[in-house]
């Protein structure tokens, strides 16, 4: 199916692998590469995805004069990063709002230590521009492509519930983004629930329009997750605290320099520059670091309970048990409004 789709419609393979799905990569891939920055006796082992934390810290100049070493390992997606954290192979890594739920349900050894809050405009249910579907309620009886166990899966469930429907009222077609894009483009499905930058890509290249976004139904959070043993080590705890401050400053830089970051991000991932800039202004650049507080925990608990009810996770659990708030100092509440670039 994919071979018949114009190459411009398919996101770069490396980026497709970085989808925020709940399942680990089949071959257990991850941890490729071992770039090292900084100097000192302490080495912080960081799990990352292509075009994410290392790239933004480097672009913002936040890897200069590190008083400790950072050894980077690149993974295909959030779940294998959390597997590495749980196994003690890395100390900390950045992921979306859904992988920690599945890791916690599997009783992984993880602690959420930091959060950032962005708009949910990039979390969208897309339809074709000529589709007769005008609102979420119109999805009843229709086919919707979505990556099973992903943040988009939760957004679909929550959006349907808001419209008085359940997941059983639609024909959910579980596809990863590359296959979903092909199915959507060929008209094999009526709608596609997905996240940025795929949203931005589809709006530019796949004749798509937004039926609804995640605003008001998803929490818009991303997390830094560390290993309990790593934050129990005093030297690594100090390094992690410094690392998180550098990430906050780098996020400030992204907001102030969207075009510069879009250029770097496009080069890192192979995204077209225009798509990268759309995604920066729609989602990526709007994020602000916030406290991992009761509201954040409650919103993640809602996701966890939803997937447990759908029997996509093996048990119900208290998400608060997988959170450590020691790095919250001075940060605004998790409900703090994301940044905005206006309507231009």
UniProtKB/TrEMBL annotation:
Keywords: Signal. Residues 1-25 form the signal peptide. It comes from the Bacteria. Residues 43-257 form the Solute-binding protein family 3/N-terminal domain. CDD domains: PBP2_SsuA_like_2. PANTHER family: ABC TRANSPORTER SUBSTRATE-BINDING PROTEIN (PTHR30024:SF48), ALIPHATIC SULFONATES-BINDING PROTEIN-RELATED (PTHR30024). Belongs to the bacterial solute-binding protein SsuA/TauA family. This is ABC transporter substrate-binding protein. It comes from Streptomyces lonegramiae. The lineage of its organism: Bacteria, Bacillati, Actinomycetota, Actinomycetes, Kitasatosporales.
């Amino acid at each position: 199916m994919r071979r018949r789709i114009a190459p411009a419609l398919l996101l770069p393979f490396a980026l497709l692998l970085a989808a925020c799905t709940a399942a680990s990569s089949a071959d257990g891939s991850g941890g490729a590469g071992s770039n090292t920055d900084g100097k000192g006796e302490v080495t912080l082992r960081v799990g990352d995805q292509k075009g994410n934390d290392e790239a933004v810290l480097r672009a913002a100049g936040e890897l200069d004069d590190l008083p400790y070493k950072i050894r980077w390992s690149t993974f295909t997606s959030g779940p294998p990063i959390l597997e590495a954290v749980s196994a003690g192979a890395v100390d900390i890594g950045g992921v979306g709002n859904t992988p920690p739920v599945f890791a916690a349900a599997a009783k992984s050894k993880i602690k959420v230590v930091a959060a950032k809050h962005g708009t949910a405009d990039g979390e969208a249910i897309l339809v074709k521009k000529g589709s007769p579907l005008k609102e979420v309620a119109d999805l009843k009886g229709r086919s919707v492509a979505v990556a099973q166990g992903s943040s988009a899966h939760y957004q679909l469930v929550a959006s349907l519930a808001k419209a008085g429907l359940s997941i059983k009222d639609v024909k959910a077609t579980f596809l990863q983004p590359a296959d979903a894009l092909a199915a959507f483009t060929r008209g094999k499905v009526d709608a596609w629930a997905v996240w940025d930058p795929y949203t931005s890509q589809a709006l530019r290249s796949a004749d798509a329009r937004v039926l609804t976004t995640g605003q008001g139904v998803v929490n818009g959070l991303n997390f830094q997750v560390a290993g309990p043993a790593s934050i129990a080590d005093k030297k690594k705890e100090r390094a992690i605290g410094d690392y998180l401050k550098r990430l906050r400053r780098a996020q400030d830089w992204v907001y102030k320099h969207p075009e510069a970051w879009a250029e770097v991000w496009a080069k890192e991932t192979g995204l077209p520059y225009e798509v990268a800039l759309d995604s920066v202004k729609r989602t990526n650049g709007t994020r602000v670091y916030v406290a991992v507080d009761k509201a954040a925990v409650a919103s993640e608990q809602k996701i966890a309970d939803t997937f447990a009810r759908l029997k996509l996770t093996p048990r119900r659990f208290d998400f608060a048990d997988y959170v450590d708030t020691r790095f919250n100092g001075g940060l605004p509440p998790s409900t703090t409004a994301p940044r905005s670039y206006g309507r231009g």
